[in-house]
Design a protein that fits this description.
Structural class: mainly alpha
Low-confidence stretches: 18-23
Oligomer: single chain
Strand order of the largest sheet: 1-2
Mean pLDDT: 88
Number of strands: 2
Length: 281
């Protein structure tokens, strides 16, 4: 806060009054700024297009493989097919698009040096981090809905060609929750990339770490022996369980699995927040 003194015509001085500088780093102002910044980058829209095209396309192809080979699938394997997660299965490749976008949300500013300007405008670092994360989470969830709904509808249409009666509708038990859960999974993937980007402050490093977490570690977990290996595998494959409309063997319950997966990015982002307060820009 500063003070200002004005002179009166007779040489006297008027009473001092306080002049409060405008609050340019209020949280709602920071969120608005980050929203504008997010959409000003051309790669944002291309990333969303890649998310939708890859997820819907791969999901449809995997459903087509099931429908075309239904007669050759034995009874035990048929019982393990979960039609909702099958129609959303392309997200396990499409998720990389939103992870990359999440990492770029903050790591790109470190790579260009623009973070210094940002921190000058918003010196409250945790407020900046929260605003970036909120904007990303909202947009990623909306993008997830735009991706999951057509992926589900197209996948069920393809599965219906098998004439096996395995297709379901949004009104069936657990289906709507699973589809919305897919959008929540997309948001969590974006926040995972964001947490890694904030922690490592390097785009390539964040993407490499994310690949290890969401692709390599789950595969390694599937080969671990014994009951402890099964438990570790459930944890490493926890994220996808939210897209199951019914219980699936060797997977956690939907909300339990989503909570476990969310803890990954929450812990990483908490560490990044602590380091962000201690490190120079």
């Amino acid at each position: 806060m500063t003070t200002q003194t004005t002179e009166q015509p007779g040489g006297g001085h008027a009473r001092q009054r306080s002049v409060v500088p405008p609050a340019t780093d209020r949280f709602d102002h920071v969120v608005r700024s980050e929203w504008t910044k997010f959409w000003s980058v051309r790669s944002t829209m291309w990333t969303f297009i890649a998310l939708v095209v890859v997820t819907v396309g791969i999901s449809a192809l995997l459903c087509l493989a099931v429908a075309a080979n239904w007669d050759d699938i034995n009874a035990a394997d048929r019982a393990q097919i979960e039609p909702v997660s099958q129609s959303l299965s392309g997200i396990f490749l499409g998720q990389m698009a939103i992870i990359v976008l999440g990492a770029l949300t903050i790591s790109s500013e470190y790579s260009t040096g623009g973070i210094r300007t940002t921190l000058t405008a918003v010196p409250q670092r945790l407020r900046l981090l929260a605003a970036k994360g909120l904007v990303l989470a909202v947009i990623a969830f909306a993008a997830g809905l735009v991706t999951m709904v057509p992926s589900f509808l197209l996948g069920q249409a393809v599965l219906s060609t098998a004439n096996a009666g395995i297709e379901v509708s949004l009104g069936d038990p657990g289906v709507l929750r699973a589809v919305i859960g897919g959008a929540l999974y997309v948001a969590a993937c974006g926040l995972l990339g964001f947490a890694l980007g904030a922690l490592l402050r390097h785009t390539a490093g964040a993407i490499t770490a994310a690949v290890g977490l969401v692709f390599i570690l789950p595969i390694v977990g599937n080969f671990l022996p014994g009951s402890w290996g099964d438990n570790v595998s459930k944890v490493l494959n926890a994220g996808g369980s939210i897209m199951n409309a019914r219980p699936v063997d060797n997977q956690l319950d939907p909300w339990t699995g989503y909570l476990v997966f969310s803890l990954w990015w929450v812990v990483l982002l908490a560490i990044a927040a602590v380091l962000m307060r201690r490190r120079d820009a």
